[in-house]
From TrEMBL:
PANTHER family: GANGLIOSIDE INDUCED DIFFERENTIATION ASSOCIATED PROTEIN 2-RELATED, MACRO DOMAIN-CONTAINING PROTEIN. Transmembrane segments: none annotated. Residues 1-170 form the Macro domain. SUPFAM superfamilies: Macro domain-like (SSF52949). This is O-acetyl-ADP-ribose deacetylase (Regulator of RNase III). It comes from Anaerobacterium chartisolvens.
């Protein structure tokens, strides 16, 4: 199972995988951070398809094509905004990972890359988010045999180190 999950440092838009996950907002119409980078790399057709989806609730996931990306699919999920930890943030974040993985499997995705959902503009503490992300992905891989590879793509050094550290402790 361990070889089916890997933490790397890099740019998610450059990954050669079947699907990349977007840390979107409820409008699904784009934004800053990884969302902005994915929309820029995919081209304007992505937002056109997103408009047809009429938004997405926090912790839910929706799928579109990848357009100019090397990935065939973009799975958009909306992480929780960190509000101190007593507003169900942990469970909402865990549900993002579960829902996006389920949607991936339904669409025949075998390789998938994740950004660190909610730890940028949404201010979720990175160590806590890493625990939740890695726990959910590993639990999913234990019961699923169709996903061949899950990459956790960390953009900055600090996030990368924290995910590596948490991954090593599992
Ligand atoms: N590849 C991988 N990770 C990236 C990239 C990239 N190209 N660019 C940034 N990151 P954020 P959130 C990292 O703020 O906290 C948007 O405006 C970034 O360093 O993108 O879920 C949406 O529209 C951080 O570690 O997402 C929403 O409004 C991680 O991705 C809101 O931000 C997540 O940071 C969502 O906030």
């Amino acid at each position: 199972m361990i070889d089916r999950f890997e933490v790397i440092k890099g740019d998610i838009t450059k990954q050669n995988v079947d699907a990349i996950v977007n840390a979107a907002n409820t409008s699904l119409l784009g934004g800053g951070g990884v969302d902005g980078a994915i929309h820029r790399a995919a081209g304007p057709e992505l937002v056109m398809e997103c408009r047809e989806l009429h938004g997405c609730k926090t912790s839910q996931a929706k799928i579109t094509k990848g357009y100019k990306l090397s990935a065939n699919w973009v799975i958009h999920t909306v992480g929780p905004v960190w509000q101190g930890g007593n507003k169900g943030e942990d469970e909402l974040l865990a549900t993002c990972y579960r829902n996006s993985l389920e949607l991936a499997v339904k669409n025949g995705v075998r390789t998938i890359a994740y950004p660190s959902i909610s730890t940028g503009a949404y201010r979720f503490p990175v160590e806590k988010a890493a625990m939740i992300a890695i726990n959910e992905i590993k639990r999913f891989l234990e019961t699923d045999s169709s996903i061949e590879k899950v990459l956790m793509v960390c953009f900055d050094e600090d996030t990368y180190r924290k995910y590596l550290e948490i991954c090593g402790s599992f």
